[in-house]
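Q: Entry one of two.
A:
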Amino acid sequence: MVDQITVYDLKAKIDSGAQFVLVDVRGQNELDICRFENARHIPLHLLTVRHTELNPTDEIVVACHHGSRSQQAAFFLVEQGYRNVANLRGGIDAWAEQIDPEMARY
């Protein structure tokens, strides 16, 4: 089971200065349209070889466009022994719709 985090919870984490790693698993073409500030970009198709760049003890929030690919990524990380992993429900699209209406959407 992977925890789900809402965009409101993510905003509260950011605003509070909480220490966590936001991992964006979208492709470069998607990042060219919109992106999270300070997110770590590891495309989903490279996660199996690049997950070791992450610290298994860090709190990790995984994001994509709508939340499906990040859910897959979060499950994979948990299977690899990462224990503090959450999926951003609704992805960056929900962020743009509910938190940052100035952000480009696709």
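Q: Entry two of two.
A:
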Amino acid sequence: MTAVHLAAERRGRFAEAICVAWLRLTGWRILARRLKSKAGSGLGEIDIVAKRRRVVAFIEVKARADHARAQESVTALQRQRIARAAHVFAERNALCAECDLRFDVMSVDRHLWPRRITDAWRP
């Protein structure tokens, strides 16, 4: 892995930590972080799975210079992969049985301020 890739990985992990802290402070319970499927399965990685009351949110985290760029960087292919992985997670996790499922995007800008788009897309 190159130095550029390592720096991006560190920024991403730090942005996820900021988002997890913000979610916990606002009453969300973290069910999973960096949830990965087997390579070649066609399922995507889910950055954060969080639950509050009867809602389970599958959250994609993006760290960019500004929030608009972060939100634009979630591609249609990523959304499809995340949705497939979320479906598998929900089927296997009893906590999701009676819950509404939602897909959110959280972005962290250069000032390290998180912003959340709830219900960012529907599969």
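A: Comment on entry two: The chain has one domain: 3-121. The first strand starts at residue 29 and ends at 35.
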